[in-house]
Amino acid sequence: MSAPRVFVVENTLAKMAREPGGRNAEAAVKAAELRIDGVKDVSLASLIEKAEQLGVLAAEARASGESEAFGPVYDLSNAIYGVAGAFGLKGLAEAAFSLCDLTDHFRSGEEANWPAIDVHVDGIRLLATLGEKATAAGADSVLDGLRKVRARVMPAN
């Protein structure tokens, strides 16, 4: 048998981290925030489009009657949740998360409650349209209603 050979692999990330220069954490966060602000208007406008598309997907799921049809509704609601959360739209993020929860519940075999889906889709449309003005426009009352609907459809175990 021959002697084992050992290969040393250079860790380029560690090497770069030891070199002088670069950014400190504060500068990196500030640069990231600037990049996020640069896409804010486009992202907020996309939320309105996504909310309208959510209505189309919910109608398709209803027409289908198949539990698998909730997948696209869940996915789009999850995308709305992510964008809304990134831009501090807490009410919209909560409404989208609630719809994710409902659709996940229904696609796991529970009988779909279409009025609950409809009211969530409508709430998301409203909150997306209001955008950053949602808090001043009474988003709390919309969210309270959605919480009650969700609690009625999905009672705590």
Can you walk through the features of this model?
The protein is an all-alpha fold and 157 residues long. It has one domain (24-153): HPT domain (Four Helix Bundle (Hemerythrin (Met), subunit A), Up-down Bundle). The protein is 72% helix and 0% strand. It has helices spanning 12-18, 25-38, 40-64, 70-86, 90-107, 114-130, 139-153. Helix 3 packs antiparallel against helix 4, helix 3 runs antiparallel to helix 6 and helix 5 runs antiparallel to helix 6 (114-130).
Q: Main traits of this protein?
A:
157 residues, mainly alpha, Four Helix Bundle (Hemerythrin (Met), subunit A), 7 helices, HPT_dom_sf, Chemotaxis protein CheE
User: What CATH architecture would you give?
Assistant: Up-down Bundle
Instruction: Work out the helix count.
Output: 7
* Oligomeric description of these chains: single chain
**Rg from Cα:** 22 Å
User: What structural class results from the helix and strand content?
Assistant: mainly alpha
What's the SSE pattern?
Answer: HHHHHHH
How far apart are the first and last residues' alpha carbons, in Å?
64 Å
CATH superfamily caption: HPT domain
Q: Which parts are unreliable, with pLDDT below 50 for 5 consecutive residues or more?
A: none
Number of strands: 0
Helix content: over 70%
Q: Please tell me what the overall shape is.
A: extended
- Largest sheet composition: none
Overall pLDDT metric: 88
Q: Work out the count of structural domains.
A: 1
The CATH topology is given as Four Helix Bundle (Hemerythrin (Met), subunit A)
Text of the CATH class? Mainly Alpha
Strand content: under 5%
